[in-house]
Design brief:
Blueprint lengths: L17 H10 L21 H13 L9
Amino acid sequence: QAANLTPHETGRLAAWTEQDFFGALRQQERPDGSKLHPAMPAGFGQLTDDELKALWLFLRSLPAVATGTR
């Protein structure tokens, strides 16, 4: 099952800041120090700040959905 990337309180990104998100994609490591899943393309870390910001804003705009629901 894929990680919940919606802003729901059970979502993986719910407590992250924009800075946490940028760092995770650039270093392939979550704020808690754990590594991102290998399926997450390392190329996301090569995106510009503007591109990462757009991706962050898109993810934050998604409807909040609890894990395991649709």
